Predict the structure of DDH domain-containing protein.
Amino acid sequence: MKEIKNLKKAADLIKKILAKNGKIIIFGDADLDGSTSALLLEEAIRNVNPAADLLVYFSEWESSDYGLNKQALQALAAYAPALLIAVDCGIGNFEELLMAKIMGFTTVVIDHHEILHTLPEADLIIDPKQKGDQYPFKKLTTVCLVYKLSQLLLGKNFSSFLDQGFAELAALGTIADMMPEEDLNAVLVGQGAATIKQTQRPGLKAMIGAAGLGESSAREIFKKLSLILNISPVTNHLTECYLLLKTASQEEAMVLAKKLLGEADKRHQEIYEITEIVSQRVAQSLSPIIFEGDEAWQRVFSGAIASRICNKYKKPTFIFKKNIQKCRGSVRVPKNMDAVAALKTCAPLLLMYGGHPPAAGFTVSSENVDALKKCLEEYFK
Ligand SMILES: [Mn+2]
């Protein structure tokens, strides 16, 4: 059986750190794949050692750069030396991982985004897309990678009870990330769907109730939940979807579920309105791409807006939040085009970029925005 490269090494490293009572920090991307990955890994580690010295920390949607970022590292500096595990981000964080190493962290990256020009300097990298990875399927979500890691961590203690809870997390993250339902992605979505109606997680029960999904099919439940939870506020460096999925308290679960549902409604309205504005701006455009930014838009919405616009106009779409110094945004491209390859061509103009061929993200300094647009038009012409 051809395994994911470095998965076994990562499990051994985590066990070694736990045996020495060392510190572990799980740093997650703030979307649902990142949040479920962080929670699954935390629950697996707690089942190996309930007293583990463990901290979970998420990236911010608006105020920081994508993935592992310098602000977060400065906040975490006091925890070094420790094992720092980045989940669903990291593969493009070249400077940050170098900085973490200098700060005294041992670093593990568990990511499924495209490899850029080279690999970052981490102690261990798990990404099925890296050279030398023998695992035949390359489109696992991060939460499925973490599920596999949890099997190695727990060994004989990987009980069917744990399996159910983990598969529900994996199904949620996988559906939210829109990766093809093949291989382990499909297995875990199926497994999660089989038990979701009898879920033991108070947060899932509360959300299914609050959203009126009691009579829906398992599939519909996951679709709706992933829409509600894929973007959630980050409070004290923890995503609220993580807090919802983690809580053992029914009361807390009810409060959070109602709050997240209300926020999702507001967000969908706002995304709809901005999508209308973009449509008006680009309706007559002859450019091969759609490239729109605004100071008033929140960065967190850029992916959802780009998806809608790209579906409507069938053109590569770049939507970003403008700031005085830098602009951050999302890319969606029609079938058979490659957003990461396009950004790679314009890499000298970018501060950061990364993602998947159909969906990616970028940060550009504001003085380079016009040049970036030209470069991308040239690429897609
Ligand atoms: Mn992901």
Observations:
- Residues 33, 88, 112, 141-142, 177 surround manganese (II) ion (CB under 6 Å).
- Residues 164 and 195 are 7 Å apart (CA to CA).
